[in-house]
Every structure is written in C-alpha cells, then in structure tokens.
Amino acid sequence: MTDRISMQMPLVEMDGDEMTRVIWSWVKEILLIPYVDLQTEYFDLSLTERERTNDAITIEAAEATKRLGVAVKCATITPNQERLEEYNLSRLYPSPNATIRAILDGTVFRAPIQAVGIVPYLPHWVQPITIARHAYGDVYKAVELSCADQWAGARVELLATNSTGQTESLLVYDFGKTGAKQQSGDPKTSGQPSSQATGIIQAMHNTDASISSFARSCFTYALSTGQDLWFSTKDTISKIYDRHFREVFEEIYEQDFRDAFSAANISYSYTLVDDAVARVIRSNGGFIWACKNYDGDVMSDMIATAFGSLAMMSSVLVSPDGCFEYEAAHGTVQRHYYKYQAGEETSTNPVATIFAWSGALRKRGELDGLPELETFADNLEKATLEVIATGIMTGDLYDLSQLEGKQKVNTRAFLEAIAVKLDQAKG
Ligand code: NAP
Ligand code: MG
User: Fold this and answer.
1) Is 107 a pocket residue for ligand 1 (Cβ < 6 Å)?
2) Using CA atoms, how far apart are residues 285 and 69, in angstroms rounded to an integer?
3) What are φ and ψ of residue 212, in 5° steps?
4) Domain co-membership, 151 together with 103
C-alpha cells in the first residue's frame, strides 16, 4: 500500500459505543486505511473506558483537540439509570459531548446530507437548512435542586456577590409562602399544608465571551457559505437573558459584519423563535438558523428527520479559537446493536459517520496544505452519494427513496459498494 495518501499532523480520533462503534471500525477498514496512511491520536470514549478512567479520558480527548485542532468523534452513550445498571457504573457520567463542548466552547453546525432520490418530507425544502447550535451553557450547565423532603417549603433565592462583597438577591420562588401552589393530586404532597409545598428549581448561565463567539462564528459561517442567517430566541418572555443574546448578535453584526453581508448579498435577521419555526416550515431552505443551545438540540433532530433520516445529518463543532470536531448527529443506534449482538445482519446507515471522517480529513488537509487529502475527502463523499443515487442503500433510505430498482443492502455491503466507486474514480 505504498500509494496511500500521507498525513502530516494527526487528528484526534474519539471512539464510541454500540452500533456506531462497529460502523466506525468498518469505515476505517474499508474506506480509510486502504487509501490514507491515517495518523490519529486515539481516545476510547466508550462507556467502559469512561468508567475505568472516571471520565478523565473525555477531558483528555477534548484537551488533545485544542492542541491538534481537528477531531472526529463516534457517537457515545449518555448514561441514564438503565445504562447505570447495564454497564454496572459507579456514577451517571455526563454526556461526553457536553463535556467536550464545555471545554472547547463554540458552535455546532448541522446540515442535512442530501442525496438524489431521497426527497424531504416537505418537498419544497429544495436546499439544506443548516442549524447553528450554541454549544455552551444554558440548561446544559444548569444547577438544579429538588425542593422536596427537607427542602419542601423552601424559600429559594438567587444570590449574586460581586468582587467588593456587595450582594443582590432575587426571589425565585417561595415554596413556603401561604398560597404557594400545591399539586393536589400528588400522593406525596397532597393534604400537606402549603408551607410544605414541593417543586423544582433550576438556575442557568451563559457568558458574554461565549455568546459573542457564537455570534461571530455564525456570521463567519454564513459568509463562508454564502447563506442568509436567521437568529431566534424568546426575548419577549425572557427580557434579560434572551434579550441579551439578541443584543449581542445585533451589536456584532452592526460593528463587524453588516458591510460584508451586503457585499455578499446575504442577510441577517432576528425572529422570535415561534415565528421562526413557522417560517422554516414554509421556506425553501438554503439558510442558516442560529439557535440557542436547547432550541438547537431539539430543532436539529426535527430538521434531520424531516430531510429524510437522522443518519443523513452532518455535524461539526467550531470553537472560537479555530478547533473543529466532526461527528454524526445521531446516537449509538442501540436497537440495531442488540440485533447485531444477536448475530443478525443490520442495515444501519453509515453516511453521517463517513461524512464526519471526510470532514475531519478535509480540514486536516486544508490546515496542513495537503490538497491530495482534501481531494480524497471530496471523492469519498461523492462516491457515497453516487452509490445511493444508483439505488444501493441502507434500510432507512430504502423506505424513503423514490428510485426505481432500489436495493436494500446491509452496512458492510454498502461500504464495499462505496469502495468500488472510489477505486473506479482512482482509475
Ligand atoms: P439513535 O441512536 O440516534 O437512534 C434512534 C433511532 O433512529 C434508531 O433506533 C433508528 O431507528 C434511527 N437511526 C439513528 N441512526 C441511524 C442510522 N445510522 N441508521 C439507521 N437508523 C438510524 O438514538 P437513541 O437510540 O435514542 O440513543 C441511543 C444512544 O445514543 C443513547 O444512549 C444516547 O445517549 C446516545 N446518543 C448519543 C449521541 C452522540 O454521541 N452524539 C447523540 C444522541 C444519542 P430504527 O430503530 O427505527 O431503525
Ligand atoms: Mg438532540
């Protein structure tokens, strides 16, 4: 294999869990290692390794991404109670993505991968809709308290102390106040006096540095892709928090981007989030929709599904200091994994995983001045889409495709068909 493409700098490779971990190794075996002399710093973020290292491995992987600038990540399990038992964990580890995003900061851009013969549920969406998700703070870094048991009836305040020791406190809710709302149907609390009212509390934050870098990366990405930018929040209700996001965007736009946007003939507009949802549905696509962290989480799943399949969505985290982490937008496809473990063949779609790798290799090529590596990434994506266009596809796409003579194949057969196309392109 002497004619494999060489790399100069390694990229960070974060392995993961379940079906996507299986697909990960197949993509490397069939589509990468035969063509590229892969240089990676490997981090195993599987749940077993996170347990073994008490999650230090996740932090090491994020730190390595800061150092090397480019990473590719496999989907990983975010443990819940069932997983705690299934994997015999000592604690409920946080989502690796949340840990990595908190370290790198930045914005996640998610765009559907469109293929011939796969028509979106809304056929007038003729161009992709890219979601730009703010990847720091809000509910993902919130502190929460259950005001039950010894905290039933608590008076909850938000306390700020500045550098001179001056304090300001805001009443969040007084569960002990006469007339505090009590859930009469709740067997745990019904019949108790209102001074023992129970409930829940959450406090969240964001920083100006993070909001500004979110805004800058959205404006920059819009310019680099020549698409209009929309931004939406709920500032009519959240008059300080969401309003501040809106103001930061407007200030940065006016100061640094207005002229460049007019020159590029693209626009920036702010819309209330509910209005944005309605407009997105009626649109033809072809724009970037910047969303706060939670909105982006939810809306990107909606957009991906509406464009066809969760497995046809690319995702990249762009940090303010220029690091790029590529991944598939879907999870570990647990249901397919259990079938695979039972010895059944699965037709799990590897396209988003392939595009995560091609994105990372292209970026590595771009940063290191390796046009051959960039061309390989382009060819890999092209070959993948061509295979689908010829009617060879995994089950999720088979159910959606309008192509006559379409053929459902298992994951390995699909990957092998792509390798055949790649070899034909090579001549
Ligand atoms: P999921 O893995 O995204 O899968 C949900 C369903 O979507 C699958 O059962 C499958 O539907 C379909 N699907 C998703 N990806 C597919 C693919 N590549 N090919 C074909 N069909 C695909 O979500 P989940 O099952 O809710 O979550 C499983 C685990 O993933 C969880 O432990 C969660 O914590 C984790 N997760 C990780 C990430 C991440 O690391 N980025 C993101 C989300 C979830 P059918 O079963 O109908 O075929
Ligand atoms: Mg989501």
Assistant:
1) no
2) 31
3) -65, -40
4) no
Is 168 in the same domain as 230?
Answer: no
Cα torsion at 98, 29, 360, 46 (round to 10°)? 10
Q: Over its length of 427 residues, how does the chain's per-residue pLDDT go in tens digits?
A: 458 999 999 999 999 999 999 999 999 999 999 999 999 999 999 999 999 999 999 999 999 999 999 999 999 999 999 999 999 999 999 999 989 988 988 788 999 998 988 888 898 999 999 999 998 899 999 999 999 999 999 999 999 999 999 999 999 999 998 666 655 555 555 545 556 899 999 999 999 999 999 999 999 889 878 999 999 999 999 999 999 999 999 999 999 999 999 999 999 999 999 999 999 999 999 999 999 999 998 998 899 888 888 889 999 998 877 899 999 989 999 999 999 999 999 999 999 999 999 999 999 999 999 999 999 999 999 999 999 999 999 999 998 898 999 999 999 999 999 999 999 987 6
Looking at the fold, whether 262 and 225 belong to one and the same domain comes out as yes
Atom 5 (ligand 1) nearest CA:
333
Is the same domain home to 370 and 270? yes
Give the mutation target among 332, 349, 399 for probing the ligand 1 site: most ligand atoms within 8 A of CB. Answer: 332
User: Are both 186 and 234 inside the same structural domain?
Assistant: no
Is there an atom of ligand 1 within 6 Å of 335 CB? yes
> Ligand 2 center to residue 300 CA distance, Å?
7
Q: What is the pLDDT of residues 120-143, one digit of tens each?
A: 889 899 999 999 999 889 999 999
Q: Are residues 102 and 188 in the same domain?
A: no
333 touches ligand 1 (CB under 6 Å): yes
Amino acid code (one letter) for 85? E
Domain residues for 252? 11-141+206-426
Going by CA atoms, what residue is nearest to atom 16 of ligand 1?
311
Among residues 203, 218, 244, which one ends one of the domains? 203
